[in-house]
Amino acid sequence: MNKQIEWIENLKQDVPLFLDKLKVDNVPGFFHYSLSGDLYDDNIKWGLGNTVFATKIYYSLDLLDKLPVKERKAMANFIKSFQQKDGSLYDPLVKRKTFLRDKLVGLRNLDYSNFFHKSTIRAETRQAISALNLLEEGPEIPYLEFPKTKERVETYLINLDWEKPWGAGSHFSHLMFFLQNSNVNNKSELINYSVDWVNKLQDPKSGSWYKNEPSLQQKINGAMKVITGLKVVNKLNFQYPDKLIDLCLAAKHNEQACDNFNIVYVLKYCNQISSEYKSSKIKEFAYDRLKIYHKYYYPKLGGFSFNQGQANTTYYDAKISRGQNEPDIHGTVMFLWGISIITQILEVNQKLGFKEFIT
Q: For 331-343, what is each residue's pLDDT tens digit?
């Protein structure tokens, strides 16, 4: 095994020990966000995202189906305990803590999509249902709060801010996920219409999907979100993969876990379409990413921090952690997801056995 990736061989043994430290005995299925810096304990109703992340971590390590049935059931029941009458699943603590911010941001930016927390609820619901799918469970109540006609789909897509494609692409991806996981009669028609609509935004020069001229970070992270949506509906036949590869190889994103992951995800799926284009440079880039990933890893604790040397402090803009020098569950899931992608790019995953989840 190449010395640059030897350290990841121990993750399957070490990361579960980190998750064990985040569990509490008196609330089955609950996980803390970080080891010591959480602002809230298990005595209040919160932590939906933490258990979603834990589910995906176990899956990435190919350990989810090896957990005791009782433990998997507890995690599924904990996630489902957040479900509302309309089928949505969201963390009430996050909604309370961002109540004022949602209003102020909406007024300042004249963007009212999350004025009543609806965008965050949609995102949390999607992530919760994807985790339940991994646990081979389903929500008790189907979620139907998404457009189900061509006219409403068009309105939904038009109203997204494509000058900020990171957010817009995310909500395109949510729509694809909900349609794909629904029983609506015309879902194939709506999926095809949505994909055709969004592909009209693809820029032939950069390969990304947007309007006007967003930042490089927005272009790459937005492309990642659009590609997750295309992947969930099995429509990964997009144009200009070479241009997107060039965009990513020219970029330097080392700030935090989302950037470090998104760029690798885009490269992987562009390389899947255009396998001969700069494949050696993509592998070189993947090796370099692992060097960066290692800087976020705490080998004695078995987890990754979202920021280098500091646990993440917010979840959907709600402050939930003091940001200590320690790993957190959010950084850990993102870096493991990235490792599952990188090991595929480097063609070593058959030996290492990480699993890429569909989110």
A: 999 999 999 999 9
CB 244 within 8 A of CB 270: yes
Among residues 126, 120, 135, 45, the alpha carbon closest in space to that of 87 is found at 126
Rounded (10°) angle between helices 150-158 and 165-180: 160
Mean pLDDT of the chain: 91
Distances (CA, A) of 254 to 154, 190, 307, 322: 36, 37, 9, 22
Ranges of each domain in the chain: 3-144+296-352
Alpha helix ranges (H) inside the chain? 11-22, 48-60, 69-80, 92-97, 99-109, 118-134, 150-158, 165-180, 187-199, 216-232, 241-249, 257-273, 279-295, 329-345, 349-352
Q: DSSP secondary structure string, 112-129?
A: -TTTTSHHHHHHHHHHHH
Structure confidence at residue 276 (pLDDT) = 86
| Whole-angstrom distance, CA of residue 299 vs CA of residue 10 | 9
Predicted confidence at residue 138, as pLDDT, reads: 87
What is the Cα–Cα distance from 219 to 183, expressed in whole angstroms?
Answer: 33
**Other beta carbons less than 10 A from residue 238's beta carbon:** 20
Q: Which residue ranges of the chain lie beneath pLDDT 70?
A: 1-4, 99-117, 252-260
CA angle 159, 161, 167 (to 5 degrees): 115
Tokens of 127: 């992530």
